[in-house]
Design a protein that fits this description.
10 helices; 5-stranded antiparallel beta sheet; Immunoglobulin-like; 8-stranded mixed beta sheet; 517 residues; Glycosyltransferase; alpha+beta
């Protein structure tokens, strides 16, 4: 138990501190200091609410002119806590809304201190208002191409539970419909591939170069090939080396790291790296994290080790190497790939100058073989998943194919529309279908032949948003491609079952349609 004289001494000191702050508060000009002092005053029941609000920007945040944006977040959190101590809930509402809009995609607020302060302040707000505000809110998320919306209900018991949904195509329209009583915040994060600008890759603090060099023979049991991954980096400062820095190395699908090489880098005489670790939580493919004690600003630092290809992949996506100083936000990222020297993404391009491109990092579709079950076609034609559905079912005739080094362009005539999608004028007209050149053999499409094509909504797009521009189609890994025999071939044994199944599919789609789910 604390002695009485100690308690009295502490109370006396607190009163003196409050008196000092009250005296100095009118002279403070920095919004951060005003917010922090106001929080201290509020804890003593002496908040000057008018002065605190005077230093706000728009009555919803306290902008700090110097320093990073995280200082503004911290100041706003202190101000919110001060107002909540004084039960100023009406003034607190707009501040909570502003803070919710500043949240980063990963859920934080830019720094540990800012994140803790904001979470503390917002949690205090909801704690004070949970029994004051009525919450009974129904939110429907409609996504173009989906048959049913995502339905979320918010009430007092679950109002703090975050809900998420994933839309695989950034070009889909998104409609949010809310009914009832309550307030909710929706955040939309858009992720997309961007063509790397070689002249200005956005590396402000570091130079970074990555190269894959194939070795003469594989040096790992069961590996198809071994490569030496050569990474070199340099800090751009004119005055100092970078302090503790991190290399975040994304791994190519089907590749593993040579742990022996990394151990030598860590424990060898020169000790090139401080430590390394594998982090599977960072991505599906995993990342190798290498810690460097420092990065020189006068010469290149080199980190070289072997990686082994142990699983063959149809279309290998590039992976990224990122370098950054541990306590700084600025990052430099470079992509690498065994065949593409700049690590660029595969793109399906069309147009006279090949300038209209769509990223398409996926595997090839393969033409179906004879002897399929009728139910397989029916299920594919009516396939609906959470993220997409089959948009079209066409009988097409391949008119011509224009090959290219990376992209093949197939011109097809739509002979029959079994199931129509967003392309309302497809029947009887020509349409362009694009595919990787490396998929040419697996697709096996021949001029003059007819085929059954079934494709998903994300593979149907307009290269330009103009009224007279026709839709284009991607022959992606989810596209169903099957040879449609001619009338002369159908009576013959190899094609008889296929023809019966195709005619059954025509009847199902044109007369019965897909069953409602």
């Amino acid at each position: 138990m604390m002695p009485v004289h100690h308690f009295q001494s502490m109370t006396s000191n607190m009163n003196k501190a409050v008196a000092y702050l009250q005296k100095r508060l009118p002279d403070i000009k920095n919004p951060y200091s005003v917010a922090m002092v106001s929080y201290a005053m509020a804890n003593h029941g002496a908040l000057d609410k008018g002065l605190l609000l005077k230093f706000s920007t728009g009555l919803d945040h306290w902008k700090v002119p110097e320093g990073s944006g995280t200082f503004t977040l911290e100041a706003t959190a202190y101000a919110l806590l001060a107002l909540l101590k004084a039960d100023a809930l009406q003034e607190a509402g707009p501040i909570v809304k502003w803070l919710s809009l500043q949240r980063r995609p990963g859920g934080g607020y830019g720094s540990t201190q800012a994140t803790i302060m904001v979470y503390q302040a917002v949690a205090e707000y909801w704690s004070k208002t949970q029994n004051v505000k009525e919450v009974d809110l129904q939110v429907d998320i409609h996504v173009a191409g989906r048959e049913n919306p995502d339905k979320w209900n918010f009430n007092r018991r679950n109002q703090f539970l975050t809900r998420t949904t994933k839309v695989p195509d950034v070009n889909q329209n998104l409609t949010v419909e809310a009914r009832g009583v309550g307030t909710a915040t929706i955040s939309v994060l858009t992720l997309y591939y961007a063509v790397l600008d070689k002249k200005n890759p956005g590396c402000n603090d570091f130079d970074l170069e990555v190269e894959m060099v194939k070795e003469g023979k594989a040096s790992y049991p069961g590996a198809e090939a071994t490569y030496l991954l050569k990474i070199k980096t340099r800090y751009k400062s004119k005055e100092r080396d970078a302090t503790m820095s991190v290399l975040d190395i994304g791994l190519l699908t089907g590749f593993i790291v040579d742990i022996g090489d990394l151990t030598k880098l860590k424990e060898g005489k020169d000790r090139y790296i401080e430590k390394f670790e594998m982090d599977k939580a960072l991505s599906e493919r995993g990342s190798l994290i290498i810690y460097l004690n420092q990065v020189s600003h006068t010469e290149w630092d080199h980190v070289n080790f072997r990686i082994h290809s142990v699983d063959k992949v149809g279309v290998l996506q590039p992976a990224a190497v990122t370098v950054y100083e541990y306590y700084q936000k600025s990052r430099c990222r470079v992509f690498y790939h065994p065949q593409r020297t700049d690590g660029g993404l595969l793109r399906l391009c069309s147009g006279k100058d090949q300038s209209i491109c769509k990223c398409a990092e996926e595997n090839c579709s393969m033409q179906k073989k004879l002897g399929l079950e009728d139910s397989d076609r029916s299920e594919k034609a009516c396939e609906v998943t959470k993220d997409q559905s089959v948009d079209y079912v066409f009988k097409v005739q391949m008119e011509k194919m224009v090959p290219d080094a990376t992209t093949d362009m197939y011109t097809m005539r739509i002979v029959d529309v079994l199931k129509g999608g967003i392309d309302k004028s497809a029947m009887g007209n020509l349409r362009e279908f694009v595919a990787f050149a490396l998929c040419r053999e697996s697709l096996g499409l021949q001029e003059g032949k007819t085929y059954l094509l079934m494709g998903v909504s994300k593979d149907v797009y307009k290269p330009r948003e103009e009224a007279n521009v026709e839709y284009q189609y991607v022959l992606g890994e989810q596209t169903w491609v099957e040879y449609w025999p001619t009338p002369a071939e159908c009576p013959k044994q190899p094609y008889r079952q296929t023809c019966r199944g195709l005619e059954k599919l025509v009847t199902e789609q044109k007369i019965e349609g897909c069953p409602q789910k």
